[in-house]
Amino acid sequence: MWSPELFGTRRDDLQRMMGVLLQVPELREPLKEVTGGTQPDGDMLARIICDWVQGLPLTEMATKYFSRKSGEDEESAGDEDPVAAMTRCCRSVFGRLTQTASWGLSALLSLTLRDSFDAMSAEDQRVLRNLPARVYYGVSSDEAVALRLLGVPRTAAAPLAQSLGVGASEPLNEVRAKLRASNVSTWRTALGDRGESYYRVWSIIEGEA
Q1: pTM for this one?
Q2: pLDDT tens digits, 132-176
Q3: What are the backbone dihedrals phi and psi of residue 80, each rounded to the nearest 5 degrees, phi first?
Q4: Which end of the chain is more exposed for a tag (fewer CB within 10 A), N or C?
Q5: Phi/psi of residue 69, each to 5°?
Q6: What DSSP assignment string belongs to 79-136?
Q7: Count of CB atoms situated within 10 Å of the CB of 7
Q8: Rounded Cα gap, residues 172 and 149, in angstroms
């Protein structure tokens, strides 16, 4: 069951894994808080994780999973507060889900593959090791994980990795060299007009500006 399809066509396997993690007392409460329900919900957790890894924007995740009715009377029952929904989304995803779920998946990976991991190829080992990182960083490829490690925003990581020609097994220092050699034109080619803003923010954060 351990493959990148865990976040796509094999979501049922991910749901079962979430069910296992929800049996661990130290993990149950943070994960239950993500769903906002009184009972643990492995299916909802799996759906949120899949959308997060597949790159669904936070604005859409807030509407899809974290919006609530803003009023109890019939007239306002359909109204929702987008700011409150986004606040709950960010608190749940960044404060609860990414760390707890990625740690839990890493633990399950170590337990279930401890007798066979060393016999796998280096390529297969790398792919498996990066599965929890995909959950932590919210991206769906090893190339994007590398750029996230280097401070590239989530929504920019995948297209920029493709534009820079980052390889899945490329050493991180070489990826860093490509990133530092890039310019605003590189980012604009990968991301369109918004690339300039992304590049400026990344440059300031990384001290390149």
Answers
A1: 0.88
A2: 999 999 999 999 999 999 999 999 999 999 999 999 889 999 999
A3: -135, 150
A4: C
A5: -65, 135
A6: -B-HHHHHHHHHHHIIIIIHHHHHHHHHHHHHHHHTTTGGGS-HHHHHHHHHHHHHHH
A7: 21
A8: 9
